[in-house]
Automatic annotation (TrEMBL):
It comes from the Bacteria. Residues 1-251 form the EAL domain. This is EAL domain-containing protein.
Length: 251
């Protein structure tokens, strides 16, 4: 209860911040986008993990306020990045009924003077299972404007395959659990290779999440058709102020 009240206050009073983690193109090794990740530094308890406060926000309905803020802030930050680097934002299950995602996106893009093609929306399967109709119509409207729609944490849910053709995805983010073991386990590598080629067959941009070692990256290069990578090997999520320099340094 206490934490819920504190979260409400943090949202109102600017207590949330964003960290960003780059996604790199495998062929060019350049940063193509950065994913916005919400951070909450509690005045007494210190950093609270998103795995704690995002579910809390979903329970209380505060998630819409967080998502609206994340969209506006992430797009505003993106404007100051060199080149054409895009920004990815996570949209939660409850957002599809709790807010007008399309309206918030439109407002944020026009305030920043940024084209829709610089924005990616990441959704997990749970969002799609719980609100299939609304999610479909909102995502189709955004995709029609040129916003990239990514299916996040792919492979961890229940029935992802059916969503791939029913919804306007242009990107598939393979969950990091598929990458974790590929150096030690030949079957893990074959599974990853096959999930990636499934995505490629469907004309999706395929991303591997959670790349931590150069051994993993070498295997991705040699054995899979994965086009983009994200993970600690390239960069941890970093504060917004560090991102312009990170992009210059990596590119
Ligand atoms: O930031 P971290 O790397 O610890 O993220 C943990 C989880 O919290 C991730 O699965 C991520 O998708 C989720 N998360 C982080 N920021 C946001 C956000 O702004 N909105 C939503 N809905 N989820 C987020
Ligand atoms: O897609 P999702 O929003 O779940 O991904 C973001 C989450 O993944 C964040 O919690 C981020 O800190 C975490 N993450 C990013 N790169 C890595 C990595 O290389 N290894 C691990 N274990 N977690 C990572
Ligand atoms: Na994500």
């Amino acid at each position: 209860q206490r934490l819920k009240a504190d979260l409400r206050l943090a949202i109102q009073e600017g207590g949330l911040t964003l960290a960003f983690q780059p996604l790199l193109d495998v062929a060019t090794r350049k940063v193509v986008a950065c994913e916005a990740l919400a951070r909450w530094n509690h005045p007494e308890l210190g950093m609270i993990a998103p795995s704690v406060f995002i579910p809390l926000a979903e329970e209380t309905g505060l998630i819409s306020d967080i998502t609206a803020w994340v969209i506006a802030e992430a797009i505003s930050q993106c404007r100051s990045w060199p080149g054409e680097v895009g920004v990815a934002v996570n949209v939660s299950t409850r957002d599809f009924r709790g807010m007008d995602v399309e309206k918030v996106v439109d407002a944020a893009l026009s305030a920043a003077g940024l084209p829709p093609t610089r924005l990616e929306i990441e959704v997990t399967e749970t969002a799609l299972i719980e609100e299939p109709e609304i999610a479909k119509s909102v995502l189709e409207a955004l995709a029609a404007k040129g916003v990239e729609i990514a299916l996040d944490d792919f492979g961890t849910g229940y029935s992802s395959l059916s969503y791939l053709s029913a919804l306007p995805f242009s990107k598939l983010k393979i969950d990091r659990s598929f990458v974790q073991d590929i150096e030690a386990n030949e079957r893990s590598l074959r599974l990853l290779t096959n999930v990636a080629s499934l995505g490629r067959d469907l004309d999706l941009t395929v991303v591997a999440e959670g790349v931590e070692t150069s051994g993993q990256f070498d295997l991705l290069l040699a054995k899979t058709q994965i086009q983009q990578v994200q993970g600690y090997l390239f960069s941890r999520p970093l504060p917004a102020r560090d991102i312009p320099e990170l992009i210059v340094h990596l590119n």
